[in-house]
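Our collaborator T.R. sent over the components below with a one-line note: 'Predict the complex.' Nothing else. No constraints on interfaces, no templates requested, no preferences about which chain binds where. So this is a plain run: every listed entity goes in together, and whatever single assembly comes back becomes the starting point for the next discussion.
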Amino acid sequence: MEREQVYNFAPGPSTMPDSALKTAAAELLNFRGSGMSIMEISHRSALFQDVFDSACAKLRSLMNVPETHEILLLQGGATTQFAAIPMNLIEGGTADYAITGSFSGKAYEEAKKYGTAHIAANTKSGGHDRIPSQEELSFSPDAKYFYYCANNTIYGTEWQYVPETAAPLVCDMSSDILSREVDVSKYGLIYAGAQKNMAPAGLTVVIVDKSLAGRELPCTPKILSYKTMIETGSMLNTPPCWCIYMLDLTLDWVIAQGGVKAMEERRQERAGLLYDFLDNSRLFKPHALPGSRSYMNVTFRSGSDELDAAFIKGAAERGLVNLKGHKIAGGMRASIYNAMPVEGVKALVAYMKEFEVSHV
Amino acid sequence: MEREQVYNFAPGPSTMPDSALKTAAAELLNFRGSGMSIMEISHRSALFQDVFDSACAKLRSLMNVPETHEILLLQGGATTQFAAIPMNLIEGGTADYAITGSFSGKAYEEAKKYGTAHIAANTKSGGHDRIPSQEELSFSPDAKYFYYCANNTIYGTEWQYVPETAAPLVCDMSSDILSREVDVSKYGLIYAGAQKNMAPAGLTVVIVDKSLAGRELPCTPKILSYKTMIETGSMLNTPPCWCIYMLDLTLDWVIAQGGVKAMEERRQERAGLLYDFLDNSRLFKPHALPGSRSYMNVTFRSGSDELDAAFIKGAAERGLVNLKGHKIAGGMRASIYNAMPVEGVKALVAYMKEFEVSHV
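Returned assembly:
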């Protein structure tokens, strides 16, 4: 069974590498000669532990994760981390939150349940079209951590610098993890829902400085304790085995492509093609300001809801699917994660040109 | 690619229906002609919502879930529910817990964080070899709910009756859901990790009386609020799409086999073969007492650790795999969930006979 040629610009779940999908299909009924599917194998078996360890080792190597940090493979998505982070780290004190989009705002709201959440910056008044500068960040004394979302999937902005803070950095990298080189040692905690650059939905990667674990509030569910998950090797209970398996296959693909450095070069090429076109377009306007633009989610609009709808419909007819913007942002959004081939972006730009010529 | 003949007695993740696995493999690269894998499709798309709705409708029909109850498809496993249940239902008051094994004990420990957990019964002194009778259950006045685990995977015991209680019944059916007919209207909440009878690990089904929602403690993470999950159709955030898809395929198989009634007949046949043999064996002894025996997990031992090890090794050589008991119970355990064919149990009994003849 071959795939039809569709370029899928969905924001997550999203395009995955063909090689990972093909391997998964080929061995779905019989994993490594066991006579069983990977889905049927005990998470306590050597066969599965090998997959788990392999995924962690590849992630550690690809991201150069220092030994001071543990890699946890969990369930629950970013929304679970919105609560788990303050439950584990705020200690009833204060944490600083930079609100640059929808998800950092949700994280801030959740943190207020467990301590004092201080707004370090908020770009809402400008429609979240930019990232605040270092100078704009307001810090509270004795903050337990500084929280930010590296890439704002809905608005299409991305931090181009690492904030300098006295408190440990906590970062939601759900939509740009593995797409650029990151100095993990600068972070107290990095986490990411897997469904954009890593694996199918249902897996959350947490990379946490082990020295920050063990400070959870008494009300913290055991399953949300980083300390417990470190002690149990992410297996206090049954982990999302299939997603971890798919992560391992996806990391094989990242390695084969040349690692994170190659992913970063490709994302620059993909996003560059789109922003170059948008900056010269007589019809389409990008949402994010230069210097704050996301390499993962390119948001733009024509200025007319009718033209936007016509564009999205015409794109889908050409196999360029899921370009509709998020309902709270409107317009169009091209999500161009690691597994999106440059050819997909070229096809999109070609269609944008064609559409512009016939609608200006 | 065909499967080799292996009978997999793993306690979960565990054997899945061949038909579900074959369909998944066949359409993994191209779901319903979309040109995309089900893993790449947005959870907000009509294509995925259709899968989600289909799984819920089949579950509702198969289990005869009344309209008073909502079906939630969540992440986090039973261990997450150990906390979510008291956070949502205990209201700072008291709840009764029947401790009949490892997991109900863990649920009890977690509940103590959020209110007063009263031990309604505890079978630990007998090595959890039986289920308490109705008369043995101790109720606290004004309990917010009565909690029990329908089937104890580790010890191989199962409740053969529904406790009569003044408080709403809350039941962990992780290892026997869909294997027997249940009057859902008797329950305030039923939940089950999917990885035994329903889907791969990473999905938790919660069936909750809607009138019990909305009572969560202030410290409850939003993701653990039943009210929020009811309001968002289980999609406050991205659900575990692949597992939900596999649930839908597995439910197709249950329906094709004749539904829950057929599952119940088969489980009686499977467990009957094993217990009949065990009750007449000169070598093997079952752990659970008659009247408390599990139809899903049959636990037994030879009386000698060496013979147990030899038995497990010899079984594996015959393609009867994962028969080793849980480390805290020892001995052997045959987990015989819905997808285990009767032929697998017959092959196991034949080997037990052969082993007995040569070792007594």
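Summary for T.R.: Chain A touches chain B through 73 residues (CB under 8 Å).
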